[in-house]
Amino acid sequence: MSYIEVNNLKKDFIVKKKREKGRLLREKETVHALKGVSFSVDKGELVGYIGPNGAGKSTTVKVLSGILTPDGGEVNVGGIVPWNERKKHVKNIGVVFGQRSQLWWDVPIIDSYSLLKDIYRIPQGDYESRLKELTNALQLDSIMRTPLRLLSLGQRMRAELCGSLLHRPELLFLDEPTIGLDAVSKLSLRDFLKWENREYGTTIMLTTHDMEDIAALCSRVMVLGHGQKLFDGRLGDLLEKYDTVRNVSVRYDGDANGLRLPEGVKYKQTEEGLELSYDPSRLPTSQLLGILQEAGNIRELTLQPENTDHLIAAMYKELDL
Fold this sequence. Notes:
The protein is an alpha/beta fold and 321 residues long.
């Protein structure tokens, strides 16, 4: 049996519309956030859970963490039904929401960790060894006595991760953990998550809009849209279908007056040279490179695919998400 088992999960919300002029009461609308979602996750997996805003990602995480009770379906996490045995369940999980904090705003973060030690009833020896390990890995030594409100966003996220992992959870939920972080902070956070997963076999479910996080961390990705699971597999397999554009930048030593590009190749002349985009399924790369070489002496040429964000956007558009 898998560590996480989700079968036909459903969750609805009642939303009140803005009251129209002349009406005494506001109309209600039922929003189907999850419409029979099913999946399983093995222990130690690092899974990406992606989809556009409103797809149902955060709702799934809240159900799996025991915050919400679903309207239908079955969920089992490590032999526990999250919303029925919340106290027992939260001992085994850690949750980081990128826009919410579990640490106390006005006190030094070391005091927040001390409170979490008492809440989770962590033995003093285990607490001290784990805290030392996490502060070294997350580079928190210099800010342990700084109140959370005085930390930068990147520092706060590292502090939040430390707080979520103090009790050595078997399962870690990350909901937009790198939102607003700079490039250095993102790289540092990714390295730590890979270390935690490798060192302790921590099962991690990551929901994010940053596809570089998914590509760097996750061997498996699930796509959610309109409250339904649309894809479950390798990120490479998902993107292959939408990887239909290549970009080429080329600079010649002189003019390339003899260049005749086939139909379907888009191009523009810039101060740096010539920029082209083409579909490799219609025009083989080797054929295009031959055409470019015949037009003149190439000084510099760069060939690259569309970035992951563009491919995901193309997928969302095709699936009408």
